[in-house]
Write a structure and sequence with these properties.
- The complex is a heterodimer of chains A (about 650) and B (about 190).
- With about 650 residues, chain A is mostly helical.
- Helix content of chain A is about 65%, strand content about 5%.
- Chain A is built from 20 helices and five strands.
- The longest helix of chain A has about 35 residues, at about 85-115.
- Chain B is an all-alpha fold and about 190 residues long.
- Chain B is built from six helices and two strands, in the order ααααβααβ.
- Chain B has helices at about 1-20, 55-60, 65-75, 80-85, 105-115, 130-140; strands at about 100, 175.
- Chain B has a two-stranded parallel sheet.
- The chains are: A mainly alpha (about 650), B mainly alpha (about 190).
- The interface of A and B includes residues 141, 243 and 254 of A.
- Bound molecules: protoporphyrin IX containing FE and copper (II) ion.
- Protoporphyrin IX containing FE (HEM) binds near residues 69 and 101 of chain A.
């Protein structure tokens, strides 16, 4: 045990018995009752839960859109939905999956789990956290409301100019898309900053860099990718908005603009984006593999280094999305090489996980099943990715269903399967109850079979020349059987999600109680109650091992000396994690919600008039003044 | 809370639907719409001249898609050859507030379909009816007689001036001048 600081007259955690301490801390860190309390909360677990729930909600909405598309494509010359609605639906599907599910789901898990895993009491900048959630929610609802009013964006999830430009995309549809990007951007960057600061400065004492859980590493690297890539897309979407709304000429070649510039800006974000979707999943996979193979990760260092190098490399391959735009040969060759290069760190990760399982004593519970499914599907997607990285092949199959097959193998394999595993794995921590194993097995096998049945045939239809983003096709093309198979597969996949939903709801109500650590896992989130109390830990853990709970089975060493009556947490040094300061953590506040509403008014208004930026900016400034108004307490003066 | 969402919903509902409808496959061989309109407000008797319109005009000029299709067709059928980008050349200006043959969308449809003296050719049988309506809707957007949210943004071309969407809404005056260039040589 170590004593953090000698207090003067404050009540410290050293002064109280365990039960008393727990009750008092829960009061200090708790969320007030009632609607105002719920809306002002800054508890990372409550906000994280909302985040996860919302992201999965959007996953389901996007999935429903996919089912409608698949039903339309089931037969040739089907008349279920016309071309206009199909355009909107594939755009809504892609946009929802990438921006409203893919990016937020990784961050959502970070919001909930990172503070627990690094052994602190709240995330850094908790009010910003609340704000970011509200902004994200508003952006998602905005674009779906617009869709319900027949104003859904219809130029694809990357909205290329000139198709999405003022001349060819009349009305406000694409403006809603562009503004949805801004919402996602603001919330995504906010969370990324919180995660970075939490991991760098709020780790429990003793959690040196080489004791950080792999999941936390993944979220940290992910946050950095977000910080460096999202600004590119907001630049692109803001320029697009300006071209459309006030007649600038960024993308107008006739006036010296450049349409290809849009693609460069978009994919400079867009490629890292797929790693923003994938890297958190590597964190989930690492956590699950380690826990269920009952040994520490094989190759911790190579795993971390390969995540970091994936992070770096992901910024050097964006042009492989643009091979058919008429690049110089040398440029194309460079990006072919860099695209193939990234297979190396990804391969290292896969081998490390397999080695961990191989050398451990794996227990095949549902979370691990999903991880095995992930190996299979993701590797297949990686293989078609290597194929696409070669220019001659890509020139052939660009914009065909081969590409659709490829990216669903990497996205669903690389994110959704690990996600399902992660939900099964952490559900007991979130709710205190276990999910049903039996339904879990059904869920897995339906998803696995359904997925492959839905997407494998798309490789073939793609090679046969079926273009993506077409609402129907002629019977003479010979694509009908494969498309019917795909639709059947999609329906099976859909059923697996219904099972998943049912399992979650039923288990949350009647599942067997989980206890603190049902899987006998080693990381810190399992050291506290399920669901965790508002303060997370009664006393801050002191970390002496990478898997603290495996090293100290009896009683975790703790660091003491924090105040009890006010929100206080430990700030540690970046690499050694030596206890450095006691720092206060903000109280709940309603202002983040008000600021988010003001931001929403500004963003939505600017779809209709550029003046909304000015007036909305003032409104936001006003709410920020309220947010940061000094409260005259000791901490503010310091 | 829930009521809060209804408000923007209602606002959007009022503005969105008409503006965003897209008709990718208009009937190929639609007949001619038959509007009964006059060119002037003068009539014999005390009541104004009787007019009957089909309502198609409203549908077209509130619709962003139709207007923007009209913008393309305006150039594809070489309207700009005589009227330039609306400022007028050998043909009269279309973006000003003067209308020799009436400025309602029905009038403009008639003008395109029938042709007018002093050089405006007739496009009857050359442009499908729906497309004539689209072009007329676009012409109306040049002087911003159409809603701002439905009017086109800039084109991917050299810009002669602010896009239709950014022009102030105009008033309408009947009459107007035949440009000297369009008059018979004396
Ligand atoms: C429920 C399972 C899913 C099914 C059945 C499905 C099916 C489809 C279909 C049919 C298309 C349209 C192809 C076209 O018309 O060109 C599509 C496009 C797309 N999907 Fe999915 N999908 C599913 C899940 C996902 C997930 C989980 C993601 C990402 C995390 C995703 C990302 C995308 C993207 C980015 C596009 C491209 C949209 C565009 O062309 O703009 N999909 N999907
Ligand atoms: Cu890429």
């Amino acid at each position: 045990m170590s004593d953090l600081a000698a207090g003067k007259d404050e009540l410290r955690d050293t002064d109280l018995s365990d039960a008393e301490l727990s009750a008092r801390l829960a009061k200090t860190w708790g969320t007030a009752r009632g609607i105002i309390g719920a809306l002002s909360t800054v508890d990372h677990k409550i906000i994280g839960r909302r985040y996860i729930f919302t992201a999965i909600f959007f996953l389901f909405l996007g999935g429903l859109a996919a089912i409608v598309m698949r039903l339309q494509l089931a037969r040739p010359e089907n008349q279920l939905i016309g071309p206009d609605l199909y355009n909107q639906i594939f755009t809504m599907h892609g946009t929802t999956m990438m921006f409203l599910f893919g990016v937020p789901i990784g961050e959502a898990f970070a919001v909930y789990l990172v503070p627990l895993m690094v052994g602190t009491r709240n995330i850094a900048f908790p009010r910003l956290n609340a704000y970011s959630y509200y902004v994200y929610l508003a952006g998602g609802l905005m674009v779906w409301f617009a869709f319900m009013l027949n104003t859904g964006p219809d130029a694809g999830w990357f909205s290329y100019v000139p198709l999405s430009g003022p001349e060819n995309a009349p009305g406000k549809r694409v403006d809603f898309w562009a503004q949805m990007i801004t919402f996602t951007e603001v919330s995504g960057l906010a969370v990324a900053v919180q995660v970075i600061v939490t991991v760098f400065k709020q780790r429990a004492p003793g959690m040196t860099l080489d004791r950080i859980p792999l999941f936390v590493w993944a979220e940290l690297i992910n946050a950095f990718i977000i910080v460096f890539s999202l600004p590119a897309v907001v630049t692109a979407s803001a320029m697009l908005m300006m071209d459309r709304l006030v007649g600038t000429h960024f993308f107008n070649p006739a006036e010296g603009g450049d349409a290809l510039l849009y693609q460069h800006l978009f994919w400079f974000f867009g490629h890292p984006e797929v790693y923003i979707i994938f890297i958190p999943a590597t964190g989930w996979v690492s956590a699950i593999v380690v826990t269920f193979s009952r040994r520490q990760a094989f190759g911790y260092l190579p795993l971390v280094l390969s995540m970091i190098s994936v992070g770096f490399l992901s910024f050097g391959l964006w042009v492989h999305h643009m091979f058919t735009t008429g690049l110089p040969q040398l440029g194309a060759s460079f990006f072919t090489a860099s695209s193939m290069l990234i297979a190396i760190p990804n391969g290292i990760q896969i081998f490390c996980w397999i080695a961990t399982l191989w050398d451990g004593r794996p227990v095949f519970r549902t979370p691990l099943l999903f991880v095995i499914g992930f190996f299979f599907i993701f590797v297949l997607g990686g293989l078609s990715g290597i194929m696409l990285a070669s220019v001659p092949l890509d020139t052939q199959v660009h914009d065909t269903y081969f590409v659709v097959a490829h990216f669903h193998y990497v996205l669903i394999g690389g994110n959704v399967f690990p996600l399902l595993g992660a939900v099964y794995y952490w559900f007991p921590k979130f709710t205190g109850r276990m999910m049903s194993e039996r339904l879990g097995k059904w869920n897995f096998w339906l998803a696995f079979v359904g997925f492959n049945l839905a997407f494998f045939p798309m490789h073939i239809t793609g090679l046969m020349g079926m273009p993506r983003r077409v609402y129907t096709y002629q019977p003479e093309m010979g694509w009908s059987t494969y498309n019917l198979l795909s639709t059947i597969g999609a329906l099976v996949l859909f059923v697996s999600f219904v099972v998943f939903l049912y399992n979650m709801i039923a288990s949350a109500r009647r599942g067997p109680l989980a206890g603190d650590n049902p899987w006998d896992a080693g990381t810190l989130e399992w050291a506290t109650a399920s669901p965790p109390p508002p303060q997370n830990f009664n006393r801050i853990p002191f970390v002496i091992n990478r898997e603290p709970l495996w090293a100290e089975r009896e009683k975790l060493p703790v660091a003491t000396g924090l105040a009890v009556e006010k929100r206080e947490l430990v700030v540690t040094t970046i690499s050694e994690a030596r206890a450095d300061l006691r720092e206060s953590s903000p109280e709940p506040s309603i202002w983040p919600l008000l600021a988010a509403i003001a931001t929403t008014i500004a963003f939505v208004g600017s779809i209709f008039t550029p003046w909304a930026v000015v007036w909305g900016g003032l409104l936001v400034a006003f709410t920020l003044v309220g947010w940061f108004w000094p409260k005259n307490n000791k901490e503010d003066e310091a | 809370m829930r009521a809060l969402w209804l408000f923007p919903l209602a606002v959007l509902l009022l503005t969105a639907c008409e503006r965003e409808k897209r008709e990718f496959r208009p009937p190929q061989m639609s007949g001619e719409t038959d509007e009964e309109i006059t060119l002037s407000s003068i009539s014999a008797g005390s009541s104004p001249p009787t007019q009957r319109t089909s309502g198609k005009g409203q549908e077209y000029e509130d619709n962003a898609y139709h207007i923007s299709q009209g913008q393309k067709l305006y150039h594809w059928f070489n309207c700009n050859g005589c009227h330039a980008n609306g400022g007028g050349d050998s043909g009269p200006a279309l973006m000003d507030d003067r209308w020799i043959y009436g400025g309602s969308i029905e009038n403009i449809v008639q003008t395109i379909r029938e042709g007018r003296p002093n050089g405006m050719p007739s496009f009857r049988g050359k442009i499908p009816d729906d497309q004539i309506w689209e072009i007329a809707a676009y012409v109306r957007s040049m002087g911003r007689y159409t809603p701002k949210t439905a009017s086109p943004g800039r084109r991917d071309a050299m810009s002669p001036g602010p896009a239709e969407q950014r022009r102030p809404p105009a008033e309408m005056h009947q009459g107007g001048m035949i440009p000297p260039s369009a008059q018979m040589p004396q």
